[in-house]
Amino acid sequence: MAAEKLSIVKAINASLRTALENDPKVLIMGEDVGKLGGVFRVTDGLQKDFGEERVIDTPLAESGIVGTAIGLALRGYRPVVEIQFDGFVFPAYDQIVTQLAKMHARALGKIKLPVVIRIPYGGAIGAVEHHSESPEALFAHVAGLKCVSPSNASDAYWMLQQAIQSDDPVIYFEPKRRYHDKSELDTEAIPGPLHGARTVREGGDLTLVAYGPMVKTCLEAAAAAAEEGKSLEVLDLRSMSPIDFDAIQASVEKTGRLVVVHEAPVFLGTGSEIAARITERCFYHLEAPVLRVGGYHAPYPPSRLEDEYLPGLDRVLDAVDRALAY
């Protein structure tokens, strides 16, 4: 397949199709993933082509879905579980944290659980309560889980391939507000490391670090800042656990300033860990404190107010101006 422009939805669908074709032990499970093709149509056509025994419509029971996936993984399968919306994952939190994340260590390395949990996450789609959460820090905090999030079609395809092939459990966060953004995908390319950050725009005055849905916002901020003569470097983190601190450090040593951006609340978010680590590592290179931009420490609001809650271009540029003012 030659390189072509695909949406993130289509890229994930293509990646799942490739995994099903290449490994008979790969299964897809979740609410409405089969006949409906998923509420976002991410799994569209897969049950028709691979059958109900490999693309499985489950009951509305997230704890049971993940628990079943753990059992299947113990029997040698590679389940790919879909949690229909981010806010629905919490009934399964116990299974994920106390079983999925711990089994490898509990068995002294003798047991592997190659389970991928796909979670469409984040806001800006005008949804009702429990449909716009950003819970990535809750899972990144748990030892034994890997947490990643693509921001473009190429990463959506390749990072999912790598997650499915991993012998460790991976939480794969899909930025639903970007599902229909199109970008270049080459399914014959050699992918980079799953947990490596990537510089998506070079700059010299300040580093913007983001992942998932906020990468596009940071690129827009960098373009706007360039019109005022400011040169911003944008780093796509791609992985929230583990975090590629070496890549962030290298960028900050060049620019001297760092702003971390994510949709999730700033309080105890991923940006907090990045700010602390980079302050330790780059203290003598920093020209300003590390600043964070994110959601507020409040329940996600009704959809009419979400534009006020979510970090946008103006809030990112305000943080950039504050950092450059030091």
Automatic annotation (TrEMBL):
A Pfam family the protein falls into: Transketolase_C
Keywords: Oxidoreductase, Thiamine pyrophosphate
PANTHER family: PYRUVATE DEHYDROGENASE E1 COMPONENT BETA SUBUNIT, PYRUVATE DEHYDROGENASE E1 COMPONENT SUBUNIT BETA
Cross-referenced SUPFAM superfamilies: Thiamin diphosphate-binding fold (THDP-binding) (SSF52518), TK C-terminal domain-like (SSF52922)
Origin species: Streptomyces stramineus
Taxonomy, superkingdom: Bacteria
Residue stretches making up the Transketolase-like pyrimidine-binding domain: 6-181
InterPro entries found in the cross-reference section: THDP-binding, Transketo_C/PFOR_II, Transketolase-like_Pyr-bd, Transketolase_C
UniProt KW Oxidoreductase keyword: yes
Essential cofactor(s): thiamine diphosphate
The protein's name in its UniProt record: Alpha-ketoacid dehydrogenase subunit beta
